[in-house]
Design a protein that fits this description.
Blueprint lengths: L6 H17 L3 E5 L6 H11 L3 E5 L14 E5 L7 H14 L8 E7 L6 E8 L5 H5 L11 H17 L8 E5 L2 H6 L1 E3 L21 H7 L5 E4 L5 E8 L15 H9 L6 E5 L6 E5 L2 E6 L11
Parallel strand pairs: 1-2, 1-4, 2-3, 6-8
Antiparallel strand pairs: 4-5, 6-10, 7-9, 8-9, 10-11, 11-12
Bound molecules: adenosine-5'-triphosphate.
Adenosine-5'-triphosphate binds next to β9 and α8.
């Protein structure tokens, strides 16, 4: 279904500004991939006439010309996710980039990718619905972790969770930030394959490292990543000294336990990919702050 924005969509978009103001929303988040044609998107943003975050899976996507001031852009991984998963990832990335904060109310406009039909409007409260914001106040990321590094790890983890590796499910774990404390509470299970390489050749932001990381995800143990993206180690066994205040949700085993616990005595974030379910779980300060479930079928469901 292509063509101009449907009448219902148009009317929802036109009214979204008034609704956002009435409910005290600070920003309107629009799943941009719903709209096929650039001119239509520009018209939509002009109609919304409110601070907008455009969310897209497309790598080169940018705000329509002339509207860069009103629009911020958030890129989410280009993989199949449930609608809830997409909302979580988009809000997490927006928070990592300080576009939204704890306590914010966000109006979301979404629909099915490429349909030209905005079919859903929802209001999200960053603080009650998204656990991330209740458990960590204003700062979603540790201070030493660059947003781009976190986003890269999130993408790699989501891809591994959904796609696995050569047809097989893989599980792995990334610990990012507070690397000295993380290293002091862990040891090598196997020889560290990153040992001896210059730092510029092992930065997770370098696209050339993607295959290597995915290959090494088969190694038992965790990746330890410095906040600037340098991968310090793979195959690291975590032996954290802390203890969890509350037990993890049922079904999560030793990998998730280690991921959660290492964040008790460090300020690191742990991003865990479950081999059994493909779910990506993010831990901070000993708590599961966000999980992104693997969709059952294929489909790009809008936000
Ligand atoms: N302390 C640890 N540090 C690093 N890796 C660990 C640790 N404990 C377990 N793992 C890794 O997790 C793997 C799976 O363990 P387990 O099945 O108990 O975890 P899980 O949390 O249920 O995860 P999954 O959903 O992937 O199975 C182990 O084979 C090991 O590679």
């Amino acid at each position: 279904m292509t063509g101009p924005l449907k009448i219902l969509s148009r009317s929802m978009v036109r009214h979204s500004h008034a609704i956002a103001r009435e409910v005290g929303a600070r920003v309107i988040m629009v799943h941009a991939d719903v709209i096929v044609e650039g001119g239509e998107l520009q018209a939509l943003v002009e109609d919304v006439n409110f601070r907008v975050i455009l969310v897209s899976r497309k790598a080169g996507f940018h705000a329509p010309g002339g509207l860069e001031e009103m629009c911020s852009v958030v890129h989410i991984p280009d993989i199949a996710m449930t609608r809830a998963g997409q909302v979580k990832v988009a809000t997490l990335v927006a928070a990592a980039e300080s576009l939204i904060q704890a306590g914010d109310r966000i109006l979301c406009l979404t629909g099915i990718d490429g349909s030209n039909a905005i079919d859903t409007m929802m209001v999200l409260d960053m603080g009650t619905e998204i656990e991330l914001f209740t458990s960590m106040a204003a700062d979603p990321l540790p201070k030493d972790v660059a947003p781009a590094v976190f986003e890269r790890i999130l993408t790699l983890a989501s891809e591994l969770g959904v796609e696995g590796r050569e047809g097989r499910a893989v599980g792995t774990l990334f610990v990012v930030g507070d690397h000295e404390r993380t290293l002091s509470q862990s040891h090598q299970l196997v020889f560290n394959p990153f040992h001896g390489y210059p730092e510029e050749e092992r930065n997770i932001l370098d696209p050339r490292l993607e295959e290597t990381i995915k290959e090494f995800s088969a190694i038992d143990g965790a990746f330890v990543v410095r906040g600037d993206g340098v991968v310090l180690s793979a195959g690291r066994y975590l032996a954290p000294r802390g203890k969890l205040d509350e037990p993890l949700p049922q079904g999560l085993g030793t990998r998730h336990e280690a991921a959660a616990t290492v964040t008790v005595t460090t300020s690191a974030l742990a991003v865990c990919v479950s081999q059994s379910t493909g779910t990506v779980s993010i831990f901070k300060r000993g708590r599961l702050i966000l999980d992104i479930q693997k969709p059952r079928g294929q489909g790009t469901d809008g936000l």
